[in-house]
């Protein structure tokens, strides 16, 4: 059947031939600055709301400190990183943390089913380090070029001004990598009981670099010492009936009465490289690193012990960015991390202003005073030269000004080679397998809640979306798909009869059968099914 829909274009009118992937050097290589299509798309997206945050608008914050243990597992932290904040003991690094929901506006209820933001600003002796993550360890997408589409689908309909289930599942049904995150969010884990009782994760893959210039892939995680507690839909509705700010109130009151919440900071480590032995790409944000192979290793603790003096000046004007790293923590080629690094700081400059880093909540601690040749801009109220000769606002100079820092004795250099193009990951088996494993790992009451939530949502969706979603879920786990179909009144056999999605790899047979997962289909079988 001929597709008569208009062609998607850029704002310059150029036809968009690939809206799924940024341009990278090879399938796993870094993104390039000339990603014009992505930059145009993401910078426009960052400016869609004034002045409220486009995402993470509803939030609360607190001050605290971080202490490193000096070890990662049973080994000195310095074996893996030269970052002082992670390998020096006896030092309390000041911090500011902002918790938030993602989709709702500033006055939305905190009982919403939504990932929670977990943004942390370490004010280290070497400058700021921002770790901007969520309460869940994964995300819906693995390429940053899809972020505006995802948020548009999850935000209210531009015509009805309501969040519509069919829009959410329309996007998800065309994005199988999102199935894992949907399984988390639609379970009780989608509504944490409080900010104090939820986990945190950097989500993205970073690198730790040591004094010898040796790098390891790393995932960062926060584990609450208060324990983890989540809410069912009924419990959330009961709370929302009388309190739309229950999580903000809980955090504030706990700190005021001296019950300071605490998290243990943990890492998962992996040798730097492609890891073809894995069924998933370790740079794919939609995937977990199995903890039996890559255990959580404690390296420090965070304590929140002071509420803001003013919510607007501190919490609302706090600004985070994934590109704000300290020496010893580096970027990987994670496509979400590469895209977020442009988007987050661009958003802050737009939302708060060019000099947002001069605000006390965002400024580095004393001893790491900024000294730059940057000048002026909106709301500049001091010049951060730090030098005696204020005439010289450039570098290099023979008569004064600032100088470059000394190079480390051994630096990390990544070899990059590949053809420039738009690539999607070729390792997609776990798009279905990890979602099925997560379903089977839930307790009975969590599975029941998940089925009720997804099945209830799908009742209001058009039939093509219903059938495709059940097809996806059945390929994750037969019981998962069958029970959702029964709950929503969807014809399971009709859903199972659908062909694989055009342009998408057929799912590997990762369904749970007789206590064991089937062997993955071969590449020949997958190709033959398309």
From TrEMBL:
Instruction: List the EC numbers from the record.
Output: 1.11.1.6
Q: Region (Disordered): which ranges?
A: 1-28, 494-530
Q: Which cofactor does it need?
A: heme
Return the Polar residues bias intervals. 7-23
> Which SMART domains has this protein been placed in?
Catalase
Question: Known CDD domains for this protein?
Answer: catalase_clade_1
Entry keyword set = Heme, Hydrogen peroxide, Iron, Metal-binding, Oxidoreductase, Peroxidase
Where in this chain does the entry annotate a coiled-coil region? none
A Pfam family annotated for this chain is: Catalase-rel
Q: Does the keyword Metal-binding apply?
A: yes
What superkingdom does the record give? Bacteria
Which ranges does the record mark as transmembrane?
Answer: none
Location of the Catalase core domain: 9-403
Give the enzyme's main class according to its UniProt record, as a single word.
Answer: oxidoreductase
Q: Which family does it belong to?
A: Belongs to the catalase family.
Task: Summarize the protein's role.
Answer: Decomposes hydrogen peroxide into water and oxygen; serves to protect cells from the toxic effects of hydrogen peroxide.
PANTHER family from the xrefs? CATALASE, CATALASE-2
The molecule here is called Catalase
Organism source for this protein? Massilia terrae
């Amino acid at each position: 059947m001929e597709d008569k829909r208009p062609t998607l274009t850029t704002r310059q009118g150029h036809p968009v031939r690939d809206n799924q992937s940024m341009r990278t050097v090879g399938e796993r290589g870094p993104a390039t600055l000339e990603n014009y299509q992505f930059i145009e798309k993401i910078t426009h997206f960052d400016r869609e709301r004034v002045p409220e945050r486009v995402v993470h608008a509803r939030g609360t914050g607190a001050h605290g400190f971080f202490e490193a243990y000096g070890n990662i597992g049973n080994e000195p932290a310095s074996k893996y990183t030269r970052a002082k904040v992670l390998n020096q003991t006896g030092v309390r690094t000041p911090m500011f943390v902002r918790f938030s929901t993602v989709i709702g506006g500033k006055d939305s209820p905190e009982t919403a089913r939504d990932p929670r933001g977990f943004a942390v600003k370490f004010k280290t002796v070497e400058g700021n380090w921002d770790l901007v993550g969520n309460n869940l360890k994964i995300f819906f997408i693995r390429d940053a070029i899809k972020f505006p589409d995802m948020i548009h689908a999850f935000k209210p309909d531009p015509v009805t001004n309501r969040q519509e289930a069919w829009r959410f599942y329309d996007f998800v049904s065309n994005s199988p990598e999102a199935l894992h995150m949907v399984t988390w969010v639609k379970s009780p884990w989608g509504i944490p009981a409080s900010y104090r009782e939820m986990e945190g994760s950097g989500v993205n893959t970073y690198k730790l670099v040591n004094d010898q210039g040796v790098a390891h892939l790393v995932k960062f995680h926060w584990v609450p010492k208060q324990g983890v507690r989540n809410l069912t839909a009924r419990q959330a509705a009961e709370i929302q009936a009388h309190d739309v700010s229950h999580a903000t109130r809980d955090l504030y009151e706990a700190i005021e009465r001296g019950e300071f919440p605490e998290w243990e900071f943990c890492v998962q480590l992996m040798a730097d490289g492609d890891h073809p032995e894995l069924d998933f790409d370790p740079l794919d944000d939609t995937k977990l690193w199995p903890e039996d192979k890559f255990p959580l290793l404690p390296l420090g603790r965070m304590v929140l012990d002071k509420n803001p003096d003013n919510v607007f000046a501190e919490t609302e004007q706090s600004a985070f960015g994934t590109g704000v790293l300290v020496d010893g923590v580096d970027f990987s080629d994670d496509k979400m991390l590469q895209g977020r690094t442009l988007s987050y700081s661009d958003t802050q400059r737009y939302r708060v202003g060019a000099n947002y880093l001069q605000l006390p909540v965002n400024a580095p601690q004393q001893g790491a005073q900024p000294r730059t040749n940057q000048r002026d801009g909106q709301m500049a109220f001091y010049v951060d030269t730090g030098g005696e000769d204020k005439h010289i606002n450039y570098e290099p100079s023979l008569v004064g000004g600032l100088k470059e820092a000394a190079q480390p004795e051994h630096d990390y250099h990544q070899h990059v080679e590949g053809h420039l193009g738009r690539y999607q990951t070729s390792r997609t088996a776990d798009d279905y397998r990890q979602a099925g494993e997560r379903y089977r790992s839930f307790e009975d009451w969590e599975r029941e809640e998940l089925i009720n939530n997804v099945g209830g949502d799908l009742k209001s969706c058009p039939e093509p979306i219903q059938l495709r979603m059940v097809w996806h879920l059945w390929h994750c786990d037969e019981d998962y798909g069958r029970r959702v179909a029964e709950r929503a009144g969807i014809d399971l056999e009709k859903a199972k009869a659908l062909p694989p999605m055009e342009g998408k790899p057929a799912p590997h047979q990762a369904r749970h059968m007789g206590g064991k997962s089937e062997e993955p289909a071969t590449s020949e079988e997958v190709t033959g099914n398309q």
